[in-house]
Amino acid sequence: MNEFTAELIGTMLMILMGAGVVANVVLTGTKGNNSGWIVITTAWALGVYIGVVVAGPISGAHLNPIVSLGLAIAGKFAWSKMWYYVIAQMLGAALGAFLVWVSYKDHFNTTDDKGAKLGVFCTGPAIRNYPINFACEVIGTFVLIFVILYISGVKLEDSNNTPVGMGSLGAIPVALLVWVIGLSLGGTTGYAINPARDLAPRLMHAILPIANKGSNDWAYAWVPILGPITGAGLASILYLVLN
Fold first, then answer.
1. Is the pLDDT confidence value at 161 over 90?
2. What is the DSSP letter of 216?
3. How many alpha carbons fall within 13 Å on the CB side of residue 184?
4. How do the domains of the chain map onto residue ranges?
5. 184: which residues sit within 8 A by CB, 6+ positions away?
6. Contact in structure between 5 and 88 (CB atoms under 8 Å)
7. Given this model, what pLDDT does residue 1 score?
8. What is the mean pLDDT of the chain?
């Protein structure tokens, strides 16, 4: 794989697992119906884990335009790579959302709640208050990027004192980070903290032939884009100041 393919597949896997667990919890007649927030946040974290495991060795597994942006601001990622990382992430997120729709097509058809259907694809506020919703996305993304900038792979040594990495275990810290953000801060807006995670699936919701699907809520769509951009910028600037 090259970097573009790695970001696309990694993001696809993350969205397939993340949007997939939302579908399992909120759609009518599924085995996991009404199983709750802990199920959603745990599967999202593990979805991040498997995406990072696959893409990490090739692309660094950003899986999120805001991670790419934050690393670039902090001088840890080349600005020249931003455009194709973001394209790969958007395509991967769209493909992941499409696969969720295929997997749960019958359940989409039998679900009457339009909001639940939209919620599989994208985030929305528990209480619609745009300034507060924006602030929540800023805060959640700030935590994500600030901590990621401090995460470094633990170096181990083999029997010959040769430094070795943690392999797939190196993805665990990021998964735990996403998990705690969801558990602690996700109850207000659904913790998008990733424009590709929200915008690309929202576009798929608009395009796909979902029965009685209702609005795409474009009036809210700017929040999970501008909020994460702002949070990433603040986190990266503080990191530079402190280091």
1. no
2. -
3. 11
4. 3-242
5. none
6. yes
7. 83
8. 93
- State the DSSP code for 77: S
| Residue 191, token pair as written in the block | 């913790």
What mean pLDDT comes out for the span 198-202? 97
Q: Token pair 């020249």 is at which residue?
A: 80
Q: Give the separation between CA 160 and CA 12, rounded to whole angstroms.
A: 39
Residue 156 sits at φ, ψ, to 5 deg, of -110, 170
- Tell me the per-residue pLDDT of 81-132, one tens digit each, with 9 for 90 and over: 999 999 999 999 999 999 999 999 999 999 999 999 999 999 999 999 999 9
Which two structure tokens, joined as six digits, stand for 92? 């991967």
Question: Which residue type occupies 175?
Answer: A
Strand partners, 163: 157
Write down the pLDDT at residue 153: 47
- Note if the pTM is more than 0.90: yes
Q: From CA 27, how far away is CA 104, in angstroms rounded?
A: 8
Return the CATH class of domain 3-242.
mainly alpha
SS3 109: helix
CA quadruple 13, 15, 16, 20: dihedral positive or negative?
A: positive
How many Å apart are CA 54 and CA 39, to the nearest integer?
23
Kindly state the tokens that stand for 212.
């009685």
Bridge partners (DSSP) listed for residue 63: none
